[in-house]
Specification:
about 400 residues, alpha/beta, Rossmann fold, 7-stranded parallel beta sheet, 6-stranded parallel beta sheet, 17 helices, transferase
Amino acid sequence: MTGVSSLRVGLSATTTEPALTGGRMDGIGVYSQALIAHLPQAGVEVQPLSFAPTGDARRMTASRAMPLSFPLAVLGDFILPSSVHLSTQTALGKGAAPLDLFHATDYRIVRMDCPVVATLHDAVPVSHPEWASPKLRKLKNWLQINAAQKAQHVIANSHFSIRELVDYFGVNENRISVVNLGVPAEWLDRPDAAECDATLAQYQLRAGYFLFVGTLQPRKNVERLLAAYLTLPPVLRAARQLVIVGSPGWRSEALVAQIKAAQQHGENVVWLDQLTDNRQLRHVYAGAGAFIFPSLHEGFGLPLLEAFASGVAVACSGTSSLPEVASGAALEFDPMSVGEIAAAMTTLARDDVARARYIAAGERRALELTWAETARRTAAVYHHVLSR
């Protein structure tokens, strides 16, 4: 088994590299960046590596470029003998120590000259094709199935995801380890009150609002959240805004029209579609009176954990991975029922005892799920793979 102090791991950084993303990171990027930041404290030397399109390698600032772009590397997998592997050593440069292992966090996997661990976040494009863009569905399906087949070991973010990985990708359950996602330790401390007030004033928010965070897409179920809010008594809607944070995603046109119509009719609905500053996002979480997460399907549900860490009472769907992540710290509802969503919102707005109970339970749950703990458990997976 490789010694703790000498373990060298290459880690996918394509979704974190500013030259490739334009500075906007999705959930996989947040996860990848967190591992890059916290794995060294778990005894792992991390080398961020990216599959850069031809011509972009010289612009990269946060990672090293693989010797081939991903399409070319995949083509090599098809036309070259199975004994030929992509050389990570070429990316590292002459004289660099070889990698013990490569961790693919973003499904981009080809044959490599070291063992590969892959994180598979969910199976939505296969399990629920109606929630995935037709233009990207086949590509995402292929990427995930390819990753499941080529990796020596798979990391899932929840026990719920294991069943999907087995059923839809044919992964041997013995090759799967569960490692939960986390939050940065600083999220467990309350942000500066004056900075919070400034952020809320900038976006014309009044503390105590109902909050949702996530990309606007069908499986996030924001249409029912909006409908539930609009059924609340007028006095409650007047007192508490509905704040939706998230950029428009696939098939969100009807929802965007509904949000704008509600605003035009004088409803207390605020849509922040351009909020990308992580510090301001913390402020928006901290100012909420209740976080409502009606998603129909999540492999983990990171916003749930961010709300817990921010000291906000949470109500969420009682489906997919969310009950596992919440572990009793959230008020659960049927996401298909507008009435149940509205009832949960009313409870967290008007029942001070219940709200305080869920806040305390959420804060305790957040203490168990930090990025430092994610890194520690991920390093344990590396050692397990290398010891076999």
